[in-house]
Amino acid sequence: MIGLAYLAALLVSLGGLALLDRAHRLAFWSDWRRSALCVGIGVVAFLAWDGAGLALGIFARGDSPHMTGLLLAPELPVEEAFFLALLCYLALLAWRWFERTAEERAR
């Protein structure tokens, strides 16, 4: 059970971001296609970055009892994809919030 702690924390965090998004209609509840594209491109780009770092020996998977042990590729844990989705979603929400705040101030 402890092996799922990190993944569970990531999923709870993503759920929290989704609730904030829904409440303020910032991204997915405003334009789900554009938001999915934005987050998807970010995740793919960061996974490519991770892949390059792993291939060059710059990155390595650390062992932790809190991770599932499931790998997307050698040395690339499945939790990394969820972490990257969280990172990209958070960045998108922050951008949209700052953009909306700037628009409101301009009026």
Automatic annotation (TrEMBL):
Could you tell me the membrane topology recorded for this protein? Multi-pass membrane protein
Protein name according to UniProt: Lycopene cyclase domain-containing protein
List the NCBIfam families. CarR_dom_SF
> Could you tell me which pathway this protein works in?
Carotenoid biosynthesis
Keyword tags: Carotenoid biosynthesis, Isomerase, Membrane, Transmembrane, Transmembrane helix
Entry keyword Heme? no
Q: What is its main location?
A: membrane
Give its localization. Answer: Membrane
| Biological source species | Cellulomonas chengniuliangii
Transmembrane segments in this chain: where?
Answer: 6-24, 36-61, 81-98
